[in-house]
Write a structure and sequence with these properties.
Elements (H helix, E strand, L loop, with lengths): L14 H11 L31 H28 L18 H7 L7 H15 L12 H17 L3 H14 L7 H18 L6 H24 L7 E12 L2 E8 L10 E5 L8 E4 L9 E7 L6 H7 L6 E4 L19 E6 L3 H13 L8 E7 L8 H8 L5 E7 L4 H8 L7 E5 L2 H13 L7 E3 L8
Parallel strand pairs: 7-8, 7-10, 8-9, 10-11
Antiparallel strand pairs: 1-2, 1-6, 2-5, 3-4, 3-6
Bound molecules: 1,4-dihydronicotinamide adenine dinucleotide (NAI).
């Protein structure tokens, strides 16, 4: 995939326009992103080599009015329903049908010809785009991330299908979270149709209507749960508009961005937000907010480019002051809250690389609330070398005149430094928070367990370690 190009600046909507955009244009966009889309600019030329029929100018003229009318009608219906619903009783989504007992076994028994899911997914998307080319515009230029997610989602659904309550809760959260992607009920129908085609193509000789019916029930269950989740979250905007007000390239591959949201962004320190840049429309990736909530509505993000073509590369290399960014709703439960217990025990915060972001926000919040009350906070910052301590001056400033806050750099490619630190430190922390690469978090967790920290006192957030 080509590296993102810097586009011309888009003008920022005025506050009144912005609230209209939030409240009306996306009242509820149903999303099943892993199943359906993550969006992309509408391709304007057909590529002969592509297995997918992309949208040509003629197609666009033919499909857009129909498509846009459909969306507009849907918006109006949803808006009407949410206005007419009594405030104490949110608009009801479709009833969630449960899968039948035995569906999981049936699916598992006939899974072999469908594995690995890559080929199934390729046929599925090809079938969908050939039949409904206008849907191609909801997808990113590169479908790689999309295909991977869909494969994981199929595995997750099958694995948990006999625990529909647990699965339903996760799908409802996913549906709420994915409203920002702009996927609509009509798309699910298209998806179901394409999945059926793909299952028949890949299912092999033993494929039967019975197995297909089990797959359809599984899919409908998932879609209904996501729709219910999206509808239940109708009062929360699907995203906030933000403008980049500072962009500091701290390392060739790393930038610290400050983004001011048009409307107040209600988050807690330790939470993360999915971001989207106009350079890669609908490629949303999570980043922790690296500062405690501030009056001026400015959010800080630490972004490291890990490879070419992803959102992180667009944010580090292609973004500057004045550019627009969309910010998804705040998510995540990372916090320093001890629930009133062990208030005298010390806290350990361990940050690896840009995993520093949530730790910095938590320390800032802690400092602002004067919550130390005799507790010491030790912030250990792991980095490959001194030059990788990209935010050290800001941390030193944060620690100035705060004797309860101790900063410790640990340099090196692995966890040796942390292991040595724990060996030399005799008091076991009351709570440990971890942020950084998954291997570091896993390694640090075992070191802490060995040192006697109970499992429920070790916190980390897996959601921010996804590929960017
Ligand atoms: N940008 C953000 O807002 C957030 C990012 N993260 C995650 O933090 C990670 C940060 O990555 P980078 O900045 O590239 O950090 P990095 O790869 O440079 O690693 C930083 C430090 O972590 C330790 N480490 C790395 N790999 C290790 C391994 N395999 N075993 C033991 N220790 C290891 C080392 O001490 C290393 O110096 C990413 O996985 C990202 O998804 C987590 C929370 C927030």
């Amino acid at each position: 995939m080509a590296s993102p190009q810097v586009k011309g600046r888009t003008s920022r909507p005025r506050a009144a326009e912005q609230s209209m955009i939030i409240s009306a244009s996306r009242v509820v966009s149903l999303a099943f992103m892993e199943f359906i889309s993550s969006g992309a600019p509408r391709p304007r030329t057909a590529t002969p080599s592509s297995p997918v029929h992309t949208l040509g100018a003629q197609d666009e003229d033919a499909f857009s009015p129909e498509y846009d009318r459909l969306l507009a009608r849907h918006h109006a219906m949803r808006l009407r329903r949410s206005i007419l619903a009594p405030p104490s009783r949110p608009a009801q989504g479709p009833a969630v049908e449960l899968p039948e007992p035995g569906d999981r076994d049936l699916i598992v028994r006939h899974l072999q010809p469908l594995l690995p899911f890559d080929a199934l997914i390729e046929v599925l998307y090809d079938a969908m785009f050939v039949r409904r080319p206008y849907l191609r515009r909801l997808f990113p230029e590169s479908m790689e991330f999309q295909r991977q997610h869909l494969g994981h989602m199929f595995h997750h659904l099958i694995r948990h299908l006999d625990r529909p309550e647990e699965l339903g809760a996760r799908l409802r959260a996913l549906g709420a979270d994915h409203r920002k992607l702009g996927v609509w009920p009509a798309h699910y129908e298209a998806f179901e149709e394409a999945l059926t085609t793909a299952l028949r193509v890949r299912g092999g000789a033993a494929w039967s209507g019975q197995v297909e019916a089990a797959w359809t029930r599984m899919l409908r269950f998932a879609v209904a749960a996501m729709v219910a989740g999206a509808e239940g979250a109708a009062t929360e905007p699907p995203f906030w508009h933000g403008e980049v007000v500072e962009h500091e390239r701290r390392r060739p591959d790393l930038a610290v961005l400050r983004v001011r949201t048009g409307e107040p962004y209600p988050y807690r320190a330790g939470q993360y937000a999915a971001l989207e840049s106009p350079l890669l429309p609908h490629s949303w990736r999570p980043y922790s907010v690296a500062c405690a909530p501030r009056e001026d509505r400015v959010l800080e993000f630490h972004v490291r480019r890990t490879g070419p073509g992803g959102l992180s590369a667009a944010l580090v290399e292609g973004t500057g002051v004045g550019d627009q960014i969309r910010v998804g709703p705040p998510r995540g439960e990372l916090s320093l809250d001890l629930g009133g217990q062990d208030v005298h025990r010390d806290l350990l915060l361990l940050a690896g690389g840009t995993g520093l972001a949530p730790m910095k926000a938590l320390v800032e919040e802690f400092a602002a609330a004067h919550r130390a009350r005799g507790r010491r906070v030790r912030l250990v910052v792991a980095a490959r070398g001194r030059e990788e301590l990209y935010d050290w001056p800001a941390l030193v400033e944060l620690a100035a005149n705060r004797s309860w806050l101790e900063l410790t750099p640990v340099l090196g490619p692995d966890l040796e430094g942390l292991a040595a630190l724990l060996r030399g430190h005799h008091s076991v922390p009351g709570l440990a928070l971890l942020g950084g690469p998954p291997a570091m978090v896993a390694g640090a967790r075992s070191l802490l367990l060995d040192a006697g920290v109970p499992d429920d006192r070790i916190r980390y957030d897996g959601s921010t370690a996804a590929p960017r």
